[in-house]
Predict the 3D structure of the following.
Amino acid sequence: MQPSYGGNVADRYLVQKINGATPEQLAILLLEGAQRFLTQAIDALQKRDIPLKARMVNRVSAIIEELTVRLNHEAGGELVANLASLYEWWLNEIFEGSQKNKADRLELVLKQMGEIRGTWQELEQRQVQPPPAQQGMGAEGMVG
């Protein structure tokens, strides 16, 4: 019997990547998936493939709900409240845009997801790399 995530190497790699991800990396992965599914929903909408559009919108909404659940309301303050509001707005726009066949509403959410993902990527890179002023400095170069 195969594991529930499938036997394919790409699936196993993705599971390992998710299990080892920082919160920032996980947000990036979730947003990448949401963008991929939303792009497919937009394509399906334009081709009038209603069943595919519905499946992709459902996948996107599940990812947005996961992003919402992962928000740390206790430690996040105003930023988390703003993200929660944005995610709620995204859900509304996706469902309204899908029901009314308004690709422009879905495209706006897609664009915003890319911007938020870019912000998470910048934050993640800053945590991985030392600030430019400290790059290449050993302990002897630090002021104590």
Remarks:
- The first helix runs from residue 9 to 19.
- The CA atoms of residues 28 and 117 lie 5 Å apart.
